[in-house]
Amino acid sequence: MKRWCSALVAGILAVSSAVFADTCGEASNSTVNLARNFRLTVTDATRATRQGIKVSLGSVDRYDTMHPVATGTTDSNGVLNFVKVVAGDYTLQMIDATTERQRRKVHVAVTGDAAYEFSWPFVNWMQLRAASGLLHYYAEPMRHWNIALLQFPDAVEISNTDTDNQGRFDLPALSAGRYWLEVAENNTQTGIKRPVGRIPINVTLDEKLPALDSIFITTSSCGLNYDQFCTLPPEKLTGSCLQIVNSKGTAIAATANLISLVGSSTTKFSTDKDGYFKLPAFVGDYDLTIYAKDYTPVRQRIHLSPTDSTCNTAIVIPMYPFGSSCKAPLPGKGN
Questions:
Q1: Quick one: signal sequence residues (predicted)?
Q2: Distance CA 270, CA 279 (A)
């Protein structure tokens, strides 16, 4: 098979074309009905108010430039009041201190008073040392997909490349900061690229981070979902079993790779019906990676020194919904 992704991954990702900032609960292309006088309150995904959000009400031209008729900044309560706005259709634009931008279409009525609470979507920024990585659908590399590096927030393309047989891509982000990675399917017959979504990344140039790390993508009704490994602290295991559960303690059907640090040999195994892995009777240091459908992949450096051949002292490893990394998810796109 020359292109693993041509049938399976292309079909899985075909439903997605959404930009990451949209939420499932409130699509950015829907119109919010407001009144001549309205009170805007901006909160985050936990309902905490957001101070210092720069707000503009106006029109956006074909060059994506905002032409405001009213501007302001949210106060310590996350509030900004608009008074005697001329009736009509507008775009409400909000920009935070990191230059992340949100827009909503609004219709202002001729009379009346209204209140609108905007919940800022949670965005799971991928932390990378550089604009390089390995693109995966769970454990499978996504081969020959096009990855474009875009400026944030204006989405001007800097460069693009295709992933190789390992799903690897390398792009020239020369300075630290926020960028978008736009993922597109390559059609080898027509030569046309079909974008499936954007991934927000934060390039740190921090040598403490891996030089090359994995980004996992899948889709849901919200569009393109993305995540990185949940990296657990190193641990010494004296038992022979691991149990994989979700955040509620329910067993998860999962697969795992146990990778030797000496010679890099790989052993693969799967959980039983109760979520247990029976570990091989190995001694030494290994990298453990765990994959389960709809859950964030987990990795952990472990030292095996089994003294108990039963599963009575199993180490319990929780997994969380895909997109939420090592924690329970917040509402909003990027979860």
A1: 1-21
A2: 10
Look at the chain and report how many structural domains it folds into.
3
Structural domain of 151: 4-20+124-227
222 in the same domain as 128: yes
The set of residues, in sequence order, having a beta carbon less than 8 Å from that of 78 and lying 6+ positions away, is: 41, 42, 43, 49, 50, 51, 53
Classified as helix, coil or strand, 8 is helix
Distance, in Å, from the CA atom of 205 to the CA atom of 192, rounded to the nearest integer, reads: 33
CA distance 251 to 319: 10
Number of H helices, E strands in the chain: 1, 26
Whether residues 217 and 78 fall in one domain = no
Instruction: Please state, in angstroms and rounded to a whole number, the distance separating the CA atoms of residues 57 and 300.
Output: 48
Residue at 188 is within a domain = yes
Length of the chain equals 335
| Paired tokens of 87 | 């009736």
Q: 156 with 302, same domain? A: no
**Structure confidence by residue, pLDDT tens digits, 269-304:** 899 888 988 888 788 888 999 999 999 999 999 888
At residue 86's C-alpha, the angle toward residues 81 and 87, to 5°, is: 105
CATH number assigned to the domain comprising residue 184: 2.60.40.10
Question: Is the peptide bond prior to 200 cis by the omega test (within 30 degrees of 0)?
Answer: no
Query: Which pTM value belongs to this model?
Result: 0.72
What is the pLDDT confidence band of residue 221, given thresholds at 50, 70 and 90?
low
- The whole-angstrom separation of Cα 110 and Cα 86 is 7
Q: Going by C-beta distance under 8 Å and a sequence separation of 6 or more, which residues neighbour residue 216?
A: 136, 137, 138, 226, 227, 228, 296, 297, 322
Residue 311 in any domain: the answer is: yes
Please report whether residue 324 resides in a domain: no
User: In 3D, which of 77, 36, 34 has the Cα closest to residue 53?
Assistant: 77
- 294: CATH: 2.60.40.1120
Instruction: Indicate whether 26 belongs to any domain.
Output: no
Query: What pLDDT score was predicted for residue 314?
Result: 77
- Report the alpha-carbon distance of residue 280 to residue 309 in Å, rounded: 10
